[in-house]
Amino acid sequence: MDYILEGLINGIILLVSGDEETYSAIWTTLKVSTMSIIASLIIGIPIGFVLGYFDFPGKRILRTISDTLLAMPTVVVGLLVYAFISRRGPLGSLGLLFTLPGIAVGQTILALPIVVSLTAEAVEGLDRQLKLTLLTLGARGRQLAISSLWEGRYAVLLAAATAYGRVISEVGASMMLGGNIKWHTRTMTTAISLETAKGEFDMGIALGLVLMLLALAVNAALSAFKKRAAQ
To answer: Which has the higher per-residue pLDDT, 173 or 3?
Structure first.
């Protein structure tokens, strides 16, 4: 047990002393997760609105596919994206493999089903009279979508927070697409995996503490959004 306590103390020292390698993994994680969540929201919210607001042939199939992809393993996403962006893949010329944008592509695919499904659920949960009221007031097209999403904004924020929690804690896709390159593509989760495999717990515990704080912040946001969405 002594080595665990020693690792915890040394981990805290790494954070307090501003260890460059530790903070490099933290900033890399924050940068790539920010790219991923922004891309997934830009793509996923409009798709979720269409799935939740309109009735059309094949809607149920699309919802089923989106809901199924919620449980897609991260390594499977990493494998699929790797096949596309590797040198032999159709997108190999873009040079995305072992880069932060390459990791962001994989994480965006992980987050997208969450944003789509929960946004669609949020729109479906809106008061049916809202659509008639907005149409009566002359809302059309983009204005209708923005007004509807604004009414369900807390549920949409809940979707965003849930997706961010999924992105920031994944390790499989980041490891496969980023290559865990020190100072460049090493995220908190891949660094923890590497350091643990080496038997070095100090940095792993330090990064684990930061991840737990981020998870706590995400959970606090989720609770707040759930409470506001239920009102």
So the answer is: 173
